[in-house]
Amino acid sequence: MGLKSKLFKASLVLMLIAILPGLPPKTVFPFKPISIAPVRPLTGVLAPNQLLNGAERLHEGGLQQPEGVAVRGNVTYVTVYGGKILELGDQGSVRTVAKLGPECVGTYSERICGRPLGIDFDTKGNNLIVADPYLGIWQVHIKTGEKKLLVSKDNAIIEDGPTTPTTATKQSSITARQPNIPNAVAVARNGDFYWSDTASDFLFEDAIQAVLCNPSGRLLHYSRADGKSRVLIDEVYGANGVVLSPDESFVLVGELGGQLIRRYYLKGPKAGTHDVLIDGLPGAVDNLNGDATGFWVGLVIAADQSNPSFIAMLAPFPNLRRLLVRLFVLVEAPFRLWYDTTGSDFALWVTHHIGHLGGLVPLFPDRGTVLRMDWEGNIVFALHNDDTSSHVISQAVPVGTEHMLLGSPVNQWLGRVKLTPETLATLRGQKATTGTQPKKAATEPPREEL
């Protein structure tokens, strides 16, 4: 058989895998072209700098994947691999506040033992609210470690906004589907909280497949009074960080895949509607956290004109994305069956690594970036690094009077950088640089362009 014949047959097989109906996976939304705004150039306020270079490594080797960070006074709380929430004292102490799941059997068993991501302080009691993509959303008492499951992944009560028996439709039942990847939380003054569900088609450890599918993430509101969640925005492309405005008139959710931030109005004439606060950001948006004058944006995967996002490059090509997803599923299927029938550690290891976004980290650009934005959507300034001491940043949280902590989904330490006097002065003045106005807020785009 000649080379041309072999290539033709291989191409035919791949084409059939891509287009034949009925093959796995069955996704919530069909594969369609996705439109992602071009990334903003790294000029002006976004120009490269070295303000995050030389990050200190706190508790190196002792913090595995410190994704979420919350600071109160001299105490820092971090979420780490293995279902743990840790308390870090200012004298170097480390205390386990709580453990959400069973013990891990290795660094590949997060779907069993947990990997908490988002964290925020409760406003109704001395608790932390913690989101775990495998174990749900929990209330954890800071002192005693007492745990209470608030949002289950299997039995959550999800509502598609206000509906009546005559307006309840098949689409409503889709929107109100069970959560799959609880990711971030933002607690309101009344104790309710807003949270993100990153995607519905794959587990967190299969993030590559998840971002290749059409957007199926959501922003939701959880009512503490009745234990129910309500969907605010559906079809968010990798719903990630969540933050409330100081007056709680709107809530923001970051999009990892879309490289943008969406705004949902809670009060005023636009209440119940949403738009795009800003798009074209130079990286995949992870956690958001705010204060009275603005908020911080961690960009977990850098993207620019020289280093385009692989998600954005593939977004317009639904058949190619479907082919890639199906190939991942077909390769992983026998190992999943092996693990399900025998409990083999090796099979668990293989299924964990196939499709895990962490495997692509060596391919990520070296740049690490944190954005400071005001509540109108202006970029106030950008902090970058080019020495990889703090790239792959999940969250940026000021601590003390002149430092910033940098969480990461891949590092074995918590980063800390000293802010320059100029940065601190800008924070105190909080004036946006000329030319940083966001693109005009858009009304809800067509579904296929989310």
TrEMBL record:
It comes from the Eukaryota. Residues 1-30 form the signal peptide. Keywords: Glycoprotein, Phosphoprotein, Signal. Residues 428-450 are annotated as: Disordered. Gene3D superfamilies: TolB, C-terminal domain. Residues 183-269 form the Strictosidine synthase conserved region domain. Belongs to the strictosidine synthase family. This is Strictosidine synthase conserved region domain-containing protein. It comes from Anopheles stephensi (Indo-Pakistan malaria mosquito). The lineage of its organism: Eukaryota, Metazoa, Ecdysozoa, Arthropoda, Hexapoda.
